[in-house]
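Moderator note: this is an archived Q&A kept for reference. The question asked for a predicted structure of one protein chain; the sequence and the answer are reproduced below.
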Amino acid sequence: MTFTGAVGAIFWLPLRAIIALCVALRIHPNVLTLIGVCINLAAAWALALGRFTLGGVIMVAANIFDFIDGKVAHQTGTATAFGGFWDSVMDRFSDLALFLGLLWLYASMQRADYVLITALAMIFTVLTSYARARAESLIDKCKVGFMERPERIVLFMIGAFTNRFAAVLWVILVLSVLTVAGRIFHTWRELEGRPA
């Protein structure tokens, strides 16, 4: 077994135990999604207080629930179209809550520059999701661009654990702008010449 395989197995074992427990207790996956959101609200509060390391730890816990809800739904046969919708909406809510925590922190520090960067990153985060959702109502797929939610969450955790949120917000902003622009261009190219 390779080193990365061994590390993956170490992390996967506790997750499998948590999934098995949730299945045994018949916890509905939509409830797990909601629990993850509530934990993310606690992470946002920690960020608002400037307690970045605590916020990072809480984000790790929240994303365990974000990971296992789909696995539990699959194993219990409770996966539904509404469950997918609920998960997507709650993901957006969690993302915006984290940004809101940073906005509160930087506003309380009277750092208008950080408030502006955070607000712009939040706007383009929403546009990233919206551009894909709207495009896929017109074309088959629009997964263009790098900045999806998993990458964004990893960057948030890096910012929390390294206390380098200013740099992380710049990365999120630039990559989100490029992702939105790429999705607009891709959709235009796919739709060019089609009847309205």
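Archived answer notes: The chain has a mean pLDDT of 89.
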